[in-house]
Design goal:
With 200 residues, the protein is mainly alpha-helical. 78% of the residues lie in helices and 0% in strands. Helix 3 runs antiparallel to helix 6 (156-168) and helix 5 (108-135) runs parallel beside helix 7 (173-198).
Length: 200
């Protein structure tokens, strides 16, 4: 919901840093893989109840997730890079709730529900992208991407906000996870309605 509004604010500084990284010989895929590894590390830290360390790794991971596209724009964008980016994103989206599930036993059912909601959201996102590609649709609302990004209530910005709140207020994980899982379900419904309208 907020990604397209935030994108014009964060793209200029990210692009500037991305150009410097590209000149230093760093590739976009290297940045993507580093971001995914650090994101998984955030989940491990959270699993051991090092919530502030997990928060720091989480934020660093998302910074790298923004920079990989900036490096690609400064060099060459590739379909494989787009593939790595989305796989890395969902590895991160699974790792963080899983960490909270291991941290406190009572969290585990809520972590499973949240991961299930992420799975449904991801499937709706990718299925819509496939249909949009077949129809030749394009958008740059989320920046230049390898495939179509459909807007919904629960997007990247909202997910990171929820994760940050979980790290700062881990005692409220079950509440935050429940609310965000509901937002994901609403997003799936939104995309399903949009798909029905756009691809009759």
């Amino acid at each position: 919901m907020l990604d397209s509004r935030i994108r014009p604010l964060i793209d200029p500084p990210l692009n500037a840093i991305g150009k410097r990284m590209a000149r230093a010989g760093i590739t976009a895929n290297q940045v993507t893989l580093a971001g995914a590894a650090i994101g998984i590390g955030a989940g491990v830290a959270i699993g051991y109840r090092y919530y502030l360390l997990g928060l720091a790794l989480l934020l660093l991971s998302r910074l790298l997730d923004g920079l990989d596209g900036a490096v690609a724009r400064a060099t060459r964008q590739s379909d494989f890079g787009g593939y790595l980016d989305i796989v890395g994103d969902f590895a991160f989206y699974v790792a963080v709730p899983l960490g909270f599930g291991f941290a406190v036993p009572v969290n585990l059912p809520y972590a499973m529900i949240l991961i299930a909601s992420f799975t449904l959201t991801g499937i709706s996102f990718l299925a819509y992208a496939v249909m949009a590609a077949k129809a030749g649709r394009e958008t740059d609302a989320h920046g230049k991407k390898s495939f179509f990004y459909n807007t919904g209530l629960a997007e990247g910005t909202e997910t990171i906000t929820a994760f940050v709140l979980m790290c700062l207020l881990p005692q409220y994980f079950t509440v935050i996870a429940t609310v965000y899982a509901a937002m994901c379900v609403i997003t799936v419904i939104q995309r399903t309605i949009a798909a029905k309208v756009d691809f009759p």
